[in-house]
Amino acid sequence: MNYDYLMIHYGELSTKGNNRKQFIQALLHNVRNALKPFPVECKGDHDHIFVSLSGKDYRPILSRLQDVSGIQKISLVAKSGKGIEELKENACELLSLEKGNTFKVEVKRTDKSYPLDSYQIAVALGDAVLDSHPELSVDVHNPDITLRVQVRKEGANLSCHDFPGIGGYPMGMNGKVTMLLSGGIDSPVAAYSLMRRGVKVECLHFAAPPYTSEAVLDKLKDLLKKLNLYQSDIKLEVVPFTDLQLAIYKNVPEPYCITIMRRMMLRIGEGVARKNGCLALATGESIGQVASQTLASMAVINQVTSFPIMRPLCCSDKLQIIDTSIKIGTYDISIRPYEDCCTIFKPKKPKTKPRLDEAEEYEKRWDWRSQVDQCIANTQKIYLSEGEEVFAKTTEEKRE
């Protein structure tokens, strides 16, 4: 007997009630899209998606599925008829492929017309395995091998191996956000956190040439190529921020420069997000991590917009964030020594408890509104689809 299928268990779709069918269809679409490089067939039903292996190595297929949001776990499955004698024979044959000294049998019977209940099936299969494999013994608490059996209307599924998925919801089912992407460790992890919750992410980066290097853009593209595993197409927009940033440092006292800069970024981010039909902004901020991420700072910065702002990492420790960045493959890229506009102009003593009235007073010193509008209008768009990039002209270039 061979393993025939990978059986996908849905994540949190059971919480969606009447929307369950829509979510299953979305997940099936995403699974088929993820497995395009593999000549396999995918079929979905109310409870699972089945990926037919057709004799192929399951490991690369499994690895790809483990990056698809909305999947709780994946089982390596052998198909069987549901007659009890056939089940016994196949269970014994499957156990002969496994290594270990102890086992247990778990049975789930969704076909309630089946003449035996789950306990009776488990006992019958356990007795058959003991007769066929006298070297094995039963351990219901900590077995080396767990044989899981599903008895369904159309047949039975047998499995000894489960693999974790990333959980969450199918990509795109929970709306779209604009992610402020710096190129550091935090924002790619925040983007991943949103993606695994089924939120489609579009990215916005603030560039300040010639003070920031062109290599930063290559770094961002490499980060997004890693994130392409979780979202097959990602749009990156690059904001020409130099003139506005220089105006900030010309008109604002140094301790307040980061506060005012972040306020301008939120204004620009809101404009771009609304233009693109996004429902919220998102950042990689974590409470207290740097001067602009104290609660006092965030309160003053947030005052410029009523647009929703999501902070997926707000309660995460730095080590947790680093661990996740290593897991998703972005850490080594994030630590490349290319500075962005937040670090190149970093003040020596940034204000950690800024006052709103002072921030608003400093902003009266020049006409920042026209500069914000120019930043929104002149963004450069880059689309990345599973590692391939396409440049789109800015609004101003299209007019020419």
Question: Which word captures the global form?
Answer: elongated
Structural class: alpha/beta
**Rg, Cα atoms, Å:** 27 Å
**Domain count:** 2
Helix count, per DSSP?
A: 15
User: What is the assigned CATH homologous superfamily of the largest domain?
Assistant: HUPs
Average pLDDT figure = 91
CATH topology name of the largest domain, in short, is Rossmann fold
N-to-C span: 67 Å
Q: What does it look like?
A:
The structure is a single chain. The chain has 400 residues and is α/β, with parallel strands linked by helices. The chain folds into two domains: 163 residues, VC0802-like; 224 residues, 3-Layer(aba) Sandwich (Rossmann fold). The chain is 38% helix and 23% strand. The chain has 15 helices and 15 strands. The protein has an eight-stranded mixed sheet. Strand 12, helix 9 and strand 13 form a beta-alpha-beta unit. The longest helix is centred in the middle third of the chain and has 19 residues. The protein is elongated and about 85 Å long. The N and C termini lie far apart (67 Å).
